[in-house]
Amino acid sequence: MNRNYLHYLLTSKKHLTIFLLIVGLLPTCFYLLTSGYEYTNSYSAFMIFSGIIALVESLVLPFIYFHFLNSKRALDTYYNLPIERKELVITGMVHMLLTIIITVFIGTIIPTIFSFGNFESLFGLLMFYVFLLVMIVTTSLYVLAIMYKAYSTIDAIIITLAYLVLPAFVVMVFMVFSNNHVFALVDIFSGIYRYLMMPLTYIGVLSEALDMVLGYGFWINGETIVLTLEMLLIAIACFFSIRSD
User: Fold this and answer.
1) Residue 233 and residue 198: Cα distance in Å, rounded?
2) Contacts of 105 (CB under 8 A, 6+ apart)
3) CA angle, residues 133, 11, 74, in degrees to nearest 5
4) What distance in Å separates the CA atoms of residue 105 and residue 24, rounded to the nearest whole number?
5) What number is the average pLDDT over the span 152-161?
6) Stretch 79-102: mean pLDDT, rounded?
7) What whole-number distance in Å separates Cα of residue 222 and Cα of residue 231?
8) Sign of CA dihedral 145, 229, 132, 90
């Protein structure tokens, strides 16, 4: 990681960081305005809201931090800097991930403190943040890997949206088919739904972790483990894809 480039990012992206802090605090405002005496229900909805914000930021910020990858003129300028390409990417990635993680954490800390007395499992809360981190890192690495392979920013955006929209379309087809043709393979289709919808399905994993936090049930099962391993495999594949370039 290059300290000079990190300092440059801290300075040049400060307005973006402030904006993300404000966005990260929106769920807190939502929580404070709607909680009343139903702290557990408001807290669960608020945390899922924060997870969705983190997912959106993970999809969008790579296009802001690494826009130069899809511009030949900007790419020549960046690659002519006295910084190794590896350090350029790693420093930008670290700053981007820390920005997302810190803004989400700051946005969730106040409601977490207010609802602390209602928690049934601190381990569940820890795992919520671990799974949230996995989702952020995996999604950001995926978008960055697409940007490395795409010829333009428009191509990268289309491919990223296709990754989110097409699986949803396939899932809808499976649902219609299984509703109209009930037979032994329906259970298989029901399992396919979740695995095709990555990373959107991971919001459900976060919700299950919150169920454990609030004492509504247990969520650690084979499917959760498989989904987590799938996210990690995607992250590893994207990392080596980027590294190969």
Assistant:
1) 12
2) 129
3) 85
4) 8
5) 80
6) 81
7) 14
8) negative
Could you tell me if 48 and 206 are in contact, meaning their C-beta atoms sit under 8 angstroms apart?
A: yes
**196-205: buried (b, 16+ CB within 10 Å) or exposed (e) per residue?**
bbbbbbbbbb
pLDDT at 181: 60
Looking at residue 135, what is its pLDDT?
A: 87
- List the single range of 32-36, 69-73, 140-144, 223-227 with lowest mean pLDDT: 32-36
Is this prediction's pTM over 0.85?
A: no
Could you check whether the bond before residue 199 is cis, i.e. omega within 30 degrees of 0? yes
